[in-house]
TrEMBL record, chain A:
Family named by the database record: Belongs to the binding-protein-dependent transport system permease family. LivHM subfamily.
Pfam families for this protein: BPD_transp_2
Membrane-spanning parts: 6-31, 67-86, 98-119, 139-163, 197-222, 242-262, 269-287
Membrane topology, record value: Multi-pass membrane protein
Identification of the protein by name: Branched-chain amino acid ABC transporter permease
Cross-referenced InterPro entries: ABC_transp_permease, BCAA_transport_permease
From TrEMBL, chain B:
Keyword Hydrolase carried by entry: no
Chief location bin: membrane
UniProt membrane topology term: Multi-pass membrane protein
Keyword annotations: Cell membrane, Membrane, Transmembrane, Transmembrane helix
TM regions (residue ranges): 6-23, 30-57, 77-98, 105-126, 157-176, 208-229, 241-269, 281-303
InterPro entries from the UniProt entry: ABC_transp_permease, LivM-like
Keyword Transit peptide: no
Domain of life from the UniProt record: Bacteria
Protein name: Branched-chain amino acid ABC transporter permease
Taxonomic source organism: Reyranella aquatilis
Location relative to the cell: Cell membrane
Length: 295, 317
């Protein structure tokens, strides 16, 4: 095992980890704001990526506009899910399990819709920053990966600032910590829950768009991303979107170490085993009790 | 058994006995699958309805049963009963070993933990191709031979599968009615009070999980002998999800509900597939509709409807 191989693996781990982190951050934002585990979080990524692909290739939009369109599509689907289904079920005091089943049903419908309307082929987006590569000690690093890492870190910091500095972010946090208390201070709790889904959709779509130059997006990608995103969110303590960022990168690194240590085909086995072990041994996530504090 | 139960049970049994002879072969085939899915769904129903556990790992045990049957009969040339027993033993042992730690989790964590388990198993089924044949699968699994009577047609296998299904329903019914069932009810309604009455909650949950795995493995073996061919595509996470839908759609606390759910999961995609490729979207939306509009499943919704009508009838009289 040479140094450059290890370096390459670590870099790939961080790159994948940021994608898991973005999906996980969305999942954890939704859980924090609505106590719903969103089993269709990976579908947000697929919707974002697919919309960007279609806008770029079929409608001929410029790349930046297509990316914005994809992200907005994710946010809109998030809003739609909340307004059309979650709100209705929350009124009837549906159980935790019903929400899980609802989002599983939505995930099935969305993935089937993409199969029906777009087809079964995978699609790739052009890499950000061109095809160029950076070579560090024989390890090949794509420019796109650097962009991905920069955007991922930027999104994480922006999310933190959003929760701590903006009125809407603070209101969302208040509504998630104490819904009745928030309502008495004039916060529209139901609207905050809608915003939570918008945020979740946006983050998921961003993760999907950023990964598509590396992995072809197709109708089946959603479930795997949901599982990885959930693993990231659980590692981070589930109620803390920023913990999910740490969790995602940890998961990415564990996976790439499994690839160089064992074999690439056992990457999912290792990732999901780590998820189960962490859930049993560290129910608060790897950040411990600190992870339970808000945003 | 009271006379009122007999009143609907006897016609049901007559329809059940005549059905495979009057319907076309493809429908008989689907009815065999309904029986297989009923067996697999029963276990998940026990966990969901009586322990409040969402099990998304049933395809793992279904796969273990199917591969045990395939490997024992095709690769080792052993009688098919060995495959059934080996699958059941491996599944129960695995469910016990994994169940002990994983069932300490609750709610969402447990649901996603079992989903992760199913994802691990489906990756291993794919990787361990020396055992499972990978995507190529294992073919040529013999049809079951019951004392010289070859169960080679759907209409013949139908009776065998459904008798196994009825036996499993009887086991599930007795389990709910027994001391264990009382403990389960106590645990579901107030786990703290149940623990204070010295009920070992974790042992109890593990026990039901092991029974669920046994049913899953039996269903898998039945499937292997029906399809004659098993490959990784049959034991993916998607299959675990569709197994979970059986009790969700039918109604988790009711044993007839499991049959209704199994009918729904086997027949609806087939009926919708006549509409072309759009059928998968419609199936997903049908699931969403059931979850949103009928939280207690079809059987629960039916019961609610009946009490409403009974009340209306009463006010008229």
């Amino acid at each position: 095992m040479t140094l450059s191989l290890v370096l390459q693996a670590l870099f790939a781990g961080v790159t994948n980890g940021i994608v898991y982190a973005l999906v996980g951050m969305g999942l954890s934002a939704i859980f924090k704001g609505s106590r719903v585990i969103n089993a269709m979080q990976g579908e947000f990524a697929v919707i974002g990526a697919m919309t960007t692909v279609l806008l770029l290739t079929k409608a001929g939009w410029p790349y930046a506009a297509a990316i914005a369109g994809g992200a907005i599509a994710g946010a809109l689907v998030g809003a739609f899910i909340e307004v059309a289904f979650v709100r209705f079920m929350a009124k009837k005091n549906a159980s935790e399990d019903s929400f899980l089943l609802l989002t599983i049903g939505l995930a099935l419908s969305l993935s089937a819709s993409i199969l029906y309307f777009v087809g079964r082929d995978g699609h790739l987006l052009p890499p950000l920053g061109g095809e160029g590569v950076l070579i560090v000690m024989d390890a090949v690093i794509q420019f796109h990966a650097l962009w991905l890492i920069a955007i991922g870190i930027g999104a994480t910091l922006a999310l933190r600032a959003f929760y701590h500095r903006t009125t809407i972010g603070l209101s969302m946090m208040a509504a998630s910590i104490d819904a009745d208390g928030a309502a008495t201070t004039g916060i529209n709790v139901a609207r905050m829950r809608t915003f939570t889904f918008v945020l979740g959709g946006l983050l998921g779509a961003l993760g999907g768009i950023l990964v598509t130059p590396l992995i072809a997006v197709d109708y089946q990608l959603g479930l795997n991303l949901t599982l990885k995103g959930f693993a990231a969110a659980v590692l981070g303590g589930l109620t803390n979107p920023l913990g999910a960022a740490v969790g995602g990168i940890t998961l990415g690194l564990v996976e790439s170490l499994a690839i160089i240590g064992i074999s690439s085909s056992y990457k999912d086995v290792v990732a999901f085993s780590v998820l189960i072990v962490i859930m049993i041994l560290m129910p608060q996530g790897i950040l411990g009790r600190a992870g339970r504090r808000g945003g | 058994m009271n006379p009122r139960t007999l009143l609907w049970l006897v016609p049901c049994l007559i329809v059940w006995a005549v059905l495979p002879f009057v319907v076309p072969r493809n429908i008989a085939d689907l009815l065999v699958f309904t029986g297989i899915y009923t067996v697999a769904g029963l276990g998940i129903g026990l966990l969901l309805g009586h322990c409040g556990i969402v099990n998304l790992a049933q395809a793992t045990f279904y796969g273990l049963g199917a591969y045990a049957s395939a490997y024992c009969t095709v690769m080792m040339g052993l009688p098919s009963i060995v495959g059934f027993l080996a699958g059941a033993a491996i599944s129960m042992a695995l469910a016990y070993v994994i169940g002990r730690p994983i069932l300490r989790l609750t709610g969402y964590f447990l649901a996603l933990g079992t989903l992760a388990l199913s994802a691990i198993a489906s990756a291993l089924f794919f990787e361990w191709d020396w055992l499972t044949g990978g995507t190529l699968g294992i073919g040529g699994i013999p049809k079951l031979d019951l004392f010289g009577f070859l169960l080679d047609r759907p209409s013949r296998y139908y009776f065998f599968v459904w008798i196994v299904a009825f036996a499993c329903m009887a086991v599930a019914h007795n389990l709910i009615d027994s001391r264990t069932g009382l403990m389960l009810r106590a645990m579901r309604d107030s786990s703290t009070a149940a623990a204070a009455l010295s009920i070992d909650l974790q042992a109890l949950r593990t026990k039901v999980f092991v029974v669920c795995a046994l049913f899953g493995s039996l269903a898998g073996s039945l499937f292997a002998h029906h399809a004659s061919f098993v490959s990784t595509q049959s034991f993916t996470v998607d299959r675990s999800i569709s197994f979970l839908l059986i009790p969700v759609i039918g109604g988790a606390t009711s044993i007839p509900g499991i049959v209704v759910g199994a009918l729904f999961v086997t027949f609806l995609p087939e009926l919708l597939s006549k509409l072309g490729d759009i059928h998968q979207i419609l199936f997903g939306l049908a699931l969403v509709a059931v979850v949103v509009l009928m939280p207690e499943g079809l059987v629960g919704a039916f019961a609610k409807l009946r009490t409403r009508f009974a009340r209306k009838g009463g006010s008229h009289g």
